[in-house]
Specification:
mainly alpha; 9 helices; 79% helix; elongated
Length: 182
């Protein structure tokens, strides 16, 4: 179980790292970056105790590992991987039964709500116990930050391949749904 927790936190870590890198790319075209460099704006924020607003936004708002926006997006993406896997398994069940079960799910609101709650409850519970309980991910982030470059590259490649495999599994299950199922 410890290896599963370790690997799942590693996927979460690399989703966060990739989200940080994506934010840095987008930050080049962010107009607020240039707005915060104007002398009068700098003076306004320095009176309130913030010397460099761009640095503050980067470190405290977006890239903070305990409460930043990028860590929230990484958690959402982590949950999304589980949802994709769940839906792929649901498609395999449909294939094995030879019926489109989704038509019965969207038949009434009770079935719709039940399906969506089950689809979203599983990742919520799994991620809570494997990643977020007692901020376990921060301990793993500290471990992953200390890795040497070779291991970081290897683990990053592993996580990227894992994410691509989940997406591939999800897409391929749709390819095997026969068109004549009733």
């Amino acid at each position: 179980m410890d290896k599963i927790i370790y690997c799942w936190n590693m996927v979460h870590y690399y989703l966060f790292v990739w989200q940080e890198k994506f934010y840095k790319l987008v930050d080049y075209i962010n107009p607020f970056t240039y707005l915060f460099k104007i002398k009068s704006v700098k003076n306004f924020y320095s009176k309130h105790g913030i010397d460099d607003m761009n640095k503050f936004v980067d470190q405290k708002v977006f890239n903070a590992k305990d409460h930043g926006i990028n860590i929230v997006f990484a958690g959402i993406n982590l949950s999304g991987l589980i949802v994709l896997f769940e839906y792929g398994v649901f498609n395999i069940i449909q294939i094995s039964m030879g019926k489109y079960l989704i038509q019965y799910i969207w038949e009434n609101h009770v079935n719709q709500i039940t399906f969506i709650v089950i689809l979203l409850a599983v990742p919520s519970v799994l991620n809570y116990y494997l990643v977020f309980k007692e901020e376990k991910y921060l301990k793993y982030f500290a471990v992953f930050d200390r890795l040497d470059d070779d291991k970081r590259f290897k683990y990053g490649l592993f996580c990227g391949i894992f994410i691509l495999l989940v997406w591939t599994f999800f897409v391929v299950t749709f390819c095997f749904l026969p068109s004549g199922i009733s």
